[in-house]
Amino acid sequence: MTADERADNQSIENGLTRRQFLVASAATAAGAVVFTGCQNVSHTEFQAESRVRVAEDVLTAFENWYATTCTQCGAGCGTIIRIIEGRAKKVEGNPDHPINLGKLCARGQASVQEQYHPDRIQGPLKLAGARGSGSYTPISWDDALGTLVGNLRNLQSRASDVSFISSPLNANQAQIADRFSRSYGAQWMTFDPVNEAPFREAARRVFGVDVLPEFDIQNARYILSFGSDFLGTWLSPVRYEMQYGVFRQGNYRAGQFQPRQGRPRGYLVQVEPHMSMTGANADQWVWVQPGMEGMLALSMAQVIVSERLGNASAASSFSGSLDSFAPDRVAQQTGVPAETIRSLARDFMSRGPSLALAGGPTGAQTNGTETIAAILTLNAVSGAVGRQGGVRLNPPSALEGLPQPTAPNRFADWQQFTERLRNRQVQGVLVYDANPVYGLPDSMKFRDALAAAPFIASFSSFMDETTVMADLILPSHVVLEDWGTDVPDPAPGYQVVSVQQPVVRPLYDTRSFWDVLLTVGDELGGAVQAALPWRSFQENIKESMQTLQSQRRGSVPGNDFETFWVNLLQRGGWWDVARSGSSASTPSSAGNAANVKAAVFSGDPQAYPYNLVLFEHNTLGAGESAHLPWLQATPDPVTTMAWETWVEVNPTRARELGLREGDIVSIESPTGKVEVPVYVHPAAPPTALAMPLGQGHTQFGRWASKNGGRRGVNPMDLVDPKLTDESTGALAYGATRVKLTKTGRRVDMPKFEGTANEVGRQFEEEKVLQYTRTT
Questions:
Q1: Which among 163, 449, 564, 649 would be 20 to 30 A from 30, CA to CA?
Q2: Which residues in the chain land under pLDDT 70?
């Protein structure tokens, strides 16, 4: 224990309340963070000159690198942060971390821009005008905590009328949130507008485990991907991109890149209704009618079984007859020619080790879980489960006693919650790291319903669409200022625990949300105080890490806890390659049924002739990163578009409608309408319109919105909220049909270079449907 920590503990023991401690620690040395960094980077220039006599045009400070964890998406990549004179200058991937091995995406790089964002909320605020006006008055933390605790104490007798909304959490963050909500009696709801709930449920059914499996892309020879954009935004894209490079060219051994010795390059087939980043890199791209991916997978299974391409137990992997899914019977419905189906099935079984993936828009249908389960079962048919180049099952978390990663609430839960708000059955709402006003379809009118809650408190660092509805704002630290832990899901085939440490002092008068919850629990007393016994969130994390240290295994050495703790922070986490998952799966019959139901769509095909295909933006995600200008300016890798929403239109259809790039069109569904410019895409099918998510904010800073208005549009406003996945209740955001109407207006498209029109002229409409490219 350091001298600072001993002083902090003594102060608390002498009667200083946790609230007083938090307020005091922000302004005194007692709250100084003791950083644990990696070894200093050596620079000959600085070694040769005295630090106090360096020339004026030379940077006078030495640099330090600190290991932490990226939280810009759910993958949990390890990062190292370059610090000079106490300021974060650069974010890089941690070369020691097994999730990303030193690689990092644009979103991770932008963490430093979030740290110094000019639109961060700099201290507690209290509403000074009408809700939604954005008129706030600065207040002290003591007043803010007093107001928060006072409201929660008044509502404690009817705590079930209080709701706590957050993003999906895991590890120690989930433990604090779970204990607080349970002990107080509040309803805890987790929000993720575009989640993989159907994929997670299908994986549980097929593989019989609660944690996601590891897809061994780098050792596969043939990959059949249904909608999973693993080179773009799916699950753990940095890890998958790294593995894809190995799949294509070589192999990693002890951190070194080595060419394959006589091994052929892997072959990738992407099956999807919209050409994604992964589709653009595939050897073969196959268009499929939205909602028919499961039927295509079952048709492949019928070929495998009827031609006896698999092992003797292949037929038993499906409970039910496959005869009705023969290629000739489903070709028209799926949009995939019968011979292509047979070719895919034969190649999948003969060019192994083969791997079948599914996710993204494939699961965004009313039959999403059943569809993905049918696709994943192909891995069992080919014998890919538990072997190299196939599906490796991950072990449970090494942090025993902590909650499993929280899954997003079912969309039906949000519909019920909206009704409760509207009927004034919710008295208090606490919001952390979630923006449901923006992320839910506009037709739900969630913003209007939220306005009926008597008390709303937000812990956001940015004024987003939900935060602007709050009566009280208690801004939280951003990632480079706060503590945290992460259990990657999916893990790389063995147990991993990542640690997030503060690498810079708080820039503004903000607080760790987790420390605020501990303070609130302390002042509420009773069961809440008993459920949250830790003095600080750091102490809570240390308690969990002591459990790891006591097991005397894994990557972090240390016979005593202090040595282990320092080594843990320097490394950025803990992992044990010897603690892998089981090689056998125990699938349930529900995951193997050959009875995928037909997908249901909103909108009459005659009135709404196009399928709406929504996909996550490569850097903005579903809108959670739209406030960062680096990510706004990063071009889409397929279209090179930036700073805007667009709709992808088939070239033949564009000629028929008299459309060209930049023309503004109206896209209308049975529940919503937006106006957006056209991008004529050579690989866009004539029966679908694809749009990226991520834009259309009315709040969230100067770069997310545009002169007080919207930048682009939010395509989620088109989605019919009545349609959900039948198994999980997840929003079926791919089940809406739309129509297109010209407006007569046009804009210049913000692209980086080139145009797809020249490329598009070589493709006829029928060729676009079955576009195949060999590299």
A1: 564
A2: 1-61, 250-263, 312-317, 319-320, 583-594, 708, 753-775
**First vs last Cα of the chain: how many Å apart?**
58
Whether the CB-CB separation of 203 and 212 falls below 8 Å is answered with yes
Instruction: Give the integer Cα–Cα distance in Å for 115 and 603.
Output: 44
Strands 472-473 vs 455-458: parallel, antiparallel or unpaired: parallel
Mutual orientation of helices 141-155 and 513-524 as an angle, nearest 10°?
50
For the segment 175-194, what is each residue's pLDDT rounded down to a tens digit? 999 999 999 999 999 999 89
CA pair distance 89, 767, nearest whole angstrom: 49
In a domain, 32, yes or no: yes
Q: Is the same domain home to 368 and 441?
A: no
Q: What angle do CA 593, 596, 602 make, to 5 degrees?
A: 155
Number of residues that make up the chain? 775
Residue 734 tokens read as: 């791919």
HEC per residue, 562-585? HHHHHHHHHHCEEEEEEEECCCCC
Same domain, 627 and 728: yes
pLDDT at residue 254, rounded to an integer? 41
Q: Is 235 inside a domain boundary?
A: yes
For 724, the domain range is: 610-769
Predicted local distance difference test score (pLDDT) of residue 595: 74
Q: pLDDT by residue (tens digit) across 393-421?
A: 999 999 988 887 778 999 999 999 999 99
112-115 contacts, C-beta under 8 A, 24 or more apart: 112/81, 112/88, 112/480, 113/628, 113/629, 113/630, 114/478, 114/479, 114/627, 114/628, 115/88, 115/478, 115/479, 115/480, 115/481, 115/504, 115/507
> Does one domain contain both 259 and 374?
yes
- For position 80, which CATH number holds? 3.30.200.210
Q: State how beta strands 494-500 and 484-486 pair.
A: antiparallel
Q: Pick from 615, 631, 684: which is nearest to 653 by CA? A: 684
pLDDT at 590: 42
C-alpha dist (Å) from residue 4 to 11, 239, 480, 739: 11, 38, 21, 64
Tokens of 98: 């097994």
Residues paired with residue 407 on neighbouring β-strands, in sequence order:
none
The reply to whether 108 and 144 lie within a common domain is no
Indicate if 728 and 642 belong to the same structural domain: yes
- pTM to 2 decimal places: 0.88
**Of 120, 78, 98, the residue nearest 461 (C-alpha):** 120
- The pLDDT assigned to 58 comes to 52
Nearest one of 483, 629, 706 to 112, comparing CA atoms:
629
Count of alpha carbons within 13 Å of 424, Cβ hemisphere only? 2
Cβ-based burial of 294 (10 A; exposed 0-12, middle 13-18, buried ≥19): buried
Question: Position 245: which residue type?
Answer: G
Q: Are 231 and 240 in contact (CB under 8 A)?
A: yes
Q: Do 236 and 379 share a domain, yes or no?
A: yes
For residue 368, what pLDDT is reported? 97
Q: How many CB atoms lie within 10 A of CB 346?
A: 15
Helices (H), 621-739: 629-633, 651-657
Domain assignment of residue 560, yes or no: yes
With a CB cutoff of 8 Å and minimum separation 6, the contacts of 4 are 29, 30, 32, 34
In a domain, 177, yes or no: yes
- CB-neighbour burial class of residue 91 (10 A; exposed 0-12, middle 13-18, buried 19+): buried
Burial class (CB in 10 A: 0-12, 13-18, 19+), 254: exposed
DSSP structure string for 479-491 = GGG--EEE--SS-
The span from the CA of 111 to the CA of 90, in Å, is: 9
For helices 327-334 and 338-350, what crossing angle results, to 10°?
110
Nearest Cα neighbor of 292 from 306, 274, 272, 275 is 272
Give the DSSP letter of residue 421: H
Based on the structure, what is the number of domains in the chain?
4
CA-to-CA dists, residue 122 to 71, 138, 474, 541, 708, angstroms: 21, 9, 10, 26, 20
